[in-house]
Amino acid sequence: MPQKPNRKGNSDDEPNQMIQPDEDGENDEIGQSNIKTDAWLATYGDMVTLLLCFFVLLFAMSSVSEQKYLQLTESLKSALGKQQVPEAGTREGLQFVDKDSEKQPEAVDELGGMIKKEVDNIVSEVEEFILYNKLAGKVKVEANELGAVITLSDIVIFPSGESIMTSAGFEIMEKLHKILEQFAYHIKIRGHTDNVPVGRSSPFRSNWELSANRACEIVHFLIQRGVEPTLLSAEGYAEYRPIDTNSTAEGRARNRRVEIVYERNAISHGLIQKHDGPIDIIRGGQY
Q1: How confident is the prediction along the chain (287 residues), in pLDDT tens digits per residue?
Q2: 3-class DSSP assignment, residue 21
Q3: Order of strands, sheet of 147-153, starting from the edge strand that comes earlier in the sequence
Q4: Residue 184 to residue 178: CA distance in whole angstroms
Q5: How far apart, in whole angstroms, are the C-alpha atoms of residue 253 and residue 215?
Q6: I need a labelling partner for 255 at 20 to 30 A (CA). Which of 65, 122, 244, 279 fits?
Q7: How many angstroms separate the CA atoms of 74 and 124, rounded?
Q8: What's the burial of 200, exposed, middle or buried (CB within 10 Å: 0-12/13-18/19+)?
Q9: CA-to-CA distance for 163 and 26, rounded, in angstroms?
Q10: Looking at the chain, which residues constitute the CATH 3.30.1330.60 domain(s)?
């Protein structure tokens, strides 16, 4: 009889026979090894994005104004709750920049420009006065670190060894005080002499008194012409502030002088008062 085909043949005879998993689950491990395990990249990307946003926020808050910060805190309060948002940013490493302190350097620069303009105006007016009245060599004006300095030679203003103005001195001061009236700032009148001692018949004890009395003579003249006394002061320096040598006649003549000084500090003080600004923007100087 012909034999029946063996249905339990070898694996070669049934190549499509399914492989059954064994009891140890070895086949499960083979299947799982084909799954990609890069899901951690999504979490890493989220973390990097959050860090970027965090540092951008820190940068933005480092230069934030107080008004913008208050708007931000109100927004965070509504989102996170009031207890989670600090009222004072300084405790969290934030420091507000005082707007007044930011404006102060600008105010000082602006004030310095105004002072320079006033000094230049004084010098320009007096130079025109000197040119028109042909007083070159007798009256001089200059701008220096002190301010605007008008120098009057004692040859044209005072007789030798005296403190009463000459008629020519009165004439010059009559014209000059009209210019001074235009600039209502504090004026210092400074008297100077050479090193030649006063004579025995002089009413002055020394050059100190002579220089101070000459300065006072100019002060009294200006007061009589309507200048506010609080804007005037008189100083005498005798021979101790020379601008030339005392060993020659020409040098001594230059040293004998009266100076009318508009100090920069005095001008700044006057400008601040005119503009109702804070007096302590510029410190220094006595008025």
Answers
A1: 555 555 544 544 445 555 555 555 555 555 555 556 677 888 888 888 988 888 888 777 666 566 766 776 776 666 555 554 455 444 444 444 555 555 555 556 788 899 999 999 999 999 999 999 999 989 999 999 999 999 999 888 999 899 999 999 999 999 999 999 999 999 999 999 999 999 999 999 999 999 999 999 999 999 999 999 999 999 999 999 999 999 999 999 999 999 999 999 999 999 988 876 544 444 444 44
A2: coil
A3: 139-143, 147-153, 257-263, 187-192, 232-236
A4: 11
A5: 17
A6: 122
A7: 58
A8: exposed
A9: 125
A10: 101-281
Q: How many CB atoms lie within 10 A of CB 227?
A: 17
Which residue stretches of 134-159 are H helix?
A: 154-157
SS3 191: strand
CA geometry: angle 13, 18, 21, nearest 5 deg: 130
Reported in sequence order, the residue ranges of 85-211 that DSSP labels E, i.e. its strands, are 139-143, 147-153, 187-192
Grouping H, G, I as helix, E, B as strand and the rest as coil, residue 33 is coil
Chosen CATH of 101-281 out of 3.30.1330.60, 3.30.750.24, 2.60.120.1440, 3.30.2000.10: 3.30.1330.60
Q: What is the Cα–Cα distance from 23 to 32, expressed in whole angstroms?
A: 17
| Residue type for position 200 | R
- Global confidence as pTM: 0.61
